[in-house]
Description:
The chain is of the alpha+beta class. The protein has helices at residues 15-31, 59-66, 69-75, 92-97, 106-109, and strands at 2-10, 36-44, 49-56, 80-89. A four-stranded antiparallel β-sheet has the order 2-3-1-4. This is Monooxygenase.
Amino acid sequence: MQAQLITYQLKDISQAEYLKQMVEPDAPIIAKVQGLISKTWLTDVAKNTFGGFYLWENKAAMDNFMHSDLVKAVVSRPYVTNVSSVDFEVNERASQITRGIPLMSSAANA
C-alpha cells in the first residue's frame, strides 16, 4: 500500500470558482481511478495551500495516476501552481492498529 500527499497553490481564482472548475468536476473522475483506495481533499485557505491525501493499493497504481492525462490536465491549469508530491510506503500492520487503514479480510486480499 502506498500513501501520497499532493499539494498546490492557487492564483487568480476565487474559492467559489476553484470549487466549481476543479473540485466538483474532478472528484467523480478521481473516484474511479484504478487502484485508488481513497482521496481526502485538503484546504488551508490562509496559507493558500490545497491538495489531497491519497491512499493507493500499490506504488504502480500511484505511478500510473501520476503519468495519466488527468494529472497532466490538472497541473496545466493556469490557476494551479507550485505542485508538490511526496509518497510513502504504508506500514499496514501499525496502521490497522491505529485505524489508519481498514482491516482487510483474507477474501479481499485474495
